[in-house]
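seq as requested:
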Amino acid sequence: MPAASLSFDHAHVISPDPMGTADWYVDRLGGKVERTVQIAGAPQIYISFGGAMVIVRGERPGEKAAGKQDLQWGLDHFGMRVTGDYDALCSELRAKDVRFLMEPTVMNPTTRICFIEAPDGVSVELLERKD
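struct tokens:
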């Protein structure tokens, strides 16, 4: 392996309603819109979560995006690590009518996960790791 290392930078979501989707990530998950630009004829919104981003963009002229149904090859979900009170966060999300695809589950003695439904067929894993 070369003298290089990798770290997670962003997840990129294509949405028919980019502003509505960006608002969801801000309102439900506490992200912060860093900037909004036009790239190749479509809005592109950068939402930060600590050191990583969710980038939401609209359909560009000449593109034809399709709806996602069921499990597909390729990206299934992206995960966000929760620090602090995991149960309180889950309660907050329920109060905001966020749909849980999988309830909080102990995966092993140090890890608990759940999955929530985000706009545009995206699943987000929320995980709690105990060191």
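The chain has a mean pLDDT of 89.
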